[in-house]
Amino acid sequence: MNRMLVRFHTTATAKTTRRIALLAALLAALPAAFVSQAQVQEAPARQRPSPIDMPLPLPQKMLPLGCCQCLGEQKTLDLSTGSSNGWSVVSSLTPAIAAVPATILTSPHPAWNLPTGGAQWVSAGTSGATGLPAATYTYRLRFKVQKCTIPQTVKLTGIAGADDIFKVFLDSNPTPVSACSGGWCFNTQNPTPSFTVNNLAPGSHVLTVVVVNTGGPTGMFLKAGLEGQCPKEPIKSDRAAEYSDKATDN
């Protein structure tokens, strides 16, 4: 009988010890769980980006200049802001915004009175005509000159305007193809010159417009396009030209 009581007492003590250990473990885990839950609830409030920081999907297409189907044909491609809305924009703000599609401004600022030639004013957001933070805003558009069976001579022409000042670059060339300084590059008080780039090679290209805004309204427009001219007569190969020269000599 005494042995049975001792065995019962030992078993009960072991069970009680295990229960106490389990309860202690649960109590120790509760504060961590509450802290973790609080962190989950607080995280969105701390990390929620402002509208200007919110990344948006970029247009993925690359605008192509088509090939000629016959001799003497001309091909064109409109690269103007607003024509395809393929332009993207990124800011130098800290933290910098992700590249987003440039926003077409349906109601440009009244002082932006430069003739746009049909191009539309664009900005980094819908409030561009009323005000965005002082920063450098970089606009980009990708396009492609295709390598064609009938070769064509391609040139790029354009004219730009921006609030406040700007530079236009083609590809990685550090020398701008157009620029405006001194401010008011959006008004007839400071008209901007047109530009031309001749003999664009086949391949991918990037147009970049860098706009510096010192505060307040900001935006830009670019009226630009490609013109491809195909030859009116067949181009002789080197071998054909050599054969023709020999025939003439004889």
Describe this structure in words.
With 250 residues, this protein is of the alpha+beta class. It has two domains: 48 residues; 178 residues, Jelly Rolls (Sandwich), CATH 2.60.120. It has two helices and 13 strands; from the N terminus they run αβββββββββββββα. The strands form three sheets. Strands 1, 3, 4, 7, 9, 10 and 12 form a seven-stranded mixed β-sheet that branches. The protein starts with a helix and ends with a helix. The N terminus is likely disordered.
Topology at a glance:
Elements (H helix, E strand, L loop, with lengths): L1 H46 L15 E3 L8 E5 L9 E4 L8 E2 L1 E2 L17 E2 L11 E11 L7 E11 L1 E6 L7 E3 L14 E3 L5 E11 L5 E11 L8 H12 L1
Parallel strand pairs: 1-7
Antiparallel strand pairs: 2-13, 3-4, 3-7, 5-6, 7-12, 8-11, 8-13, 9-10, 9-12
Concise overview:
The chain is of the alpha+beta class and 250 residues long. It has helices spanning 2-47, 238-249; strands spanning 63-65, 74-78, 88-91, 100-101, 103-104, 122-123, 135-145, 153-163, 165-170, 178-180, 195-197, 203-213, 219-229.
